[in-house]
Amino acid sequence: MNNDISNMNRCRSGVTMSEVLISMMIMGIGVVSLAAIFPASVLRSLQASQLTNSAILSGNAKARIEFDSSIIGNSTWAVQLVSGNSGLNATDPPVKAIIDPFGVFLGMSTSIGSLPRRSGLAAVTKQNVESLAALPDSWSLVREDRLVGAYVIGSYQVTVAAPPAELVNINPRTYSGGGVSNPSYRVVLIDSTGRIATRRTIRSISGSTVSWKDTDPTALVEPDIPFVPVRARIEVRENRYTWMLTVRKRALDSSLAAWTAEADLAVFFNRSYKSADEVSYPAGVYPAPGFDGQYGVAGLDDDLASPLAVDDLKEAGWPGSDDSRTMQFATLPPNLKKGGFLLETGAAIWYRVVNIDTKNSLVLVDRDIVGSNLTIVPMKGVVQVFELGNFAGIQ
Asked: Which residue did the predictor score with more confidence, 160 or 304?
């Protein structure tokens, strides 16, 4: 009987310290692996959101240009065509320019490198610029408060619980001359259930009272609220997604009336409007063997001469190789990064950075380089560049 009890006690012995440590190590490896996935997934989600919004803005821009070709058919192009003594027919070199509504509105330099900067608009107001070159649904919350007192029909205003000092720096856009360039604010009014909401454009704030009746008495007034609101969200429009257009244009006859143009659209996220971010840098085309140091496609017998002739001089410039896609700088520009975009202002062409050799100041790009003496502007904040294709019109 005693022997049986002893055997049972031995069977109930616990785990050793080494087993505990090994278990903790295995669990730690799993937890660390899972933790490493989350930042990557957040980054991929952000990139997907940016690419989606960029595609939407690109589609908006293309539809707008197809509907109103005056954006790239501005009469000032005719002056440039005549003064350049080119572009009189389709075989002449194109005349190039940038359509940059936000850059013009903000008073940036009249050109980027050799490319003149144009607005594409007859009247350069903030409202027109935002309507043309920004994504409409870019609103950020300023604050959210309950309403004080009941909404009075016909007053076109509500009073929020926020102290007046919290709203004093909000200067909403109005139709009057002094307010047309102010930021656009809106108030989202919500009922007690939280299921019904509507929005109105804020035109003035007095103390804690928010009004959507413009200071200009001739301006149209947005209608009354069709329900009883109890809460209000004040939001401001932030032009996070904006575009810049590079255009290569030809006149089709000597009268400069008919024209055709190629356009590429660069979409920015939180674009910087500092002149220091538009500095141009000279570059040249690095001759074969290119970025990888091998003629043709590295490691392949491109011309099928023989196994002993892989990557020889006869394969220099072979299609698909990097021999014609390598730029060389005296000193690499700042803000250069893989996946970033470069604007070559001589030909008005965009390139994407594939790889960077910091030791030799080489940059590999995604397409064959046009020209030899290059003027490169590394643009910050470009999410994607879209080739919009060809457009035609009458001047």
From this structure: 160
- CA 345 vs CA 78, 338, 355: distances in Å: 20, 20, 21
**Kind of pairing, strands 115-118 and 95-99?**
parallel
Collapsing DSSP to helix, strand or coil, 83 comes out as: helix
Pairing of strands 374-379, 281-285: antiparallel
DSSP state for residue 250 in the 8-state scheme: E
Contact indicator for 105, 251 with CB cutoff of 8 Å? no
User: Residue 272: what residue type?
Assistant: S
| Residue 158 Cα to chain centre, angstroms | 36
Q: How far apart are CA 273 and CA 226, in angstroms?
A: 41
Secondary element (H or E) of residue 130: helix 126-133
Closest C-alpha to 80, from 41, 110, 100, 53: 110
Query: How far apart are the C-alpha atoms of 23 and 150, rounded to whole Å?
Result: 63
Burial group, residue 13, by CB count within 10 angstroms (0-12, 13-18, 19+): exposed
Report the pLDDT averaged over residues 331-354: 93
DSSP H stretches of helix in 342-385: none
Closest to 354 (Cα-Cα) out of 342, 338, 334, 377: 338
- Asked whether 88 and 250 are in contact (CB, 8 A), the reply is no
Please, which residues have CB within 8 angstroms of residue 301's CB and are 6 or more apart in sequence?
307, 309, 310, 315
Task: Provide the whole-model pTM.
Answer: 0.80
List pLDDT tens digits, range 261-291: 899 999 999 998 988 889 999 999 988 887 8
**Tokens representing residue 227 in the block:** 């329900």
- Asked if 300 and 327 touch (Cβ cutoff 8 Å), the reply is no
